[in-house]
Amino acid sequence: MSENKAEITLGAVVLAAAIAFVGYAAQSSGAKIGGDSYTLTAGFRSAEGISVGTDVRLAGVKIGAVTGLQLNPDTYRAEAIVSIDRSVAIPDDSAMTIASEGLLGGNFVEIIPGGSFDYLTDGDEVIDTQGSVSLVSLLMKFVGSGGSE
What average pLDDT does the segment 107-113 reach? Predict the structure, then answer.
């Protein structure tokens, strides 16, 4: 009988640890259960480095994520659909850029807020965008310009 109690106790400890791990993973990834959000779209010349699930940040704080990425066949621009936490109001003259976390870090979508008193609503498009800058292109320009003195 004492062997069954030990197995039950050990099973309960393992189950509690698994639940704690799932809770920690959800919290650290920014996942919300039934989170209230709205979507915005933005067209980028180059969406290199971002994909579905990429963070959307404002002032360095995660406020959303990229939920869709597709090519617009008419404009040949990458259209990103982003989901933003409804508690964050974005001015309608804001800019959206693809930024890098550092030389070896990943990319994220950064929102640079404007000064308008009108705000973007669900389904609106951010007009002012700047795509990602290719590190390889920058290095090639630097190396190429070094010998022309």
Answer: 92
DSSP letters for 17-59: HHHHHHHHHHHHHT--TT--EEEEEEEES--TT--TT-EEEET
DSSP code at position 86: T
Is residue 15 very low, low, confident or very high in pLDDT (cuts 50, 70, 90)?
A: confident
Measured distance CA(142)–CA(84) in Å, rounded: 37
Tokens 């963070």, residue located:
55
Q: 133 near 50, Cβ under 8 Å?
A: no
Query: For 16, left (φ over 0), alpha (ψ -120 to 50), or beta?
Result: alpha
pTM for the predicted model, two decimal places: 0.67
| pLDDT (0 to 100) of residue 140 | 80
Q: Any idea which residue has 């850029």 for tokens?
A: 97
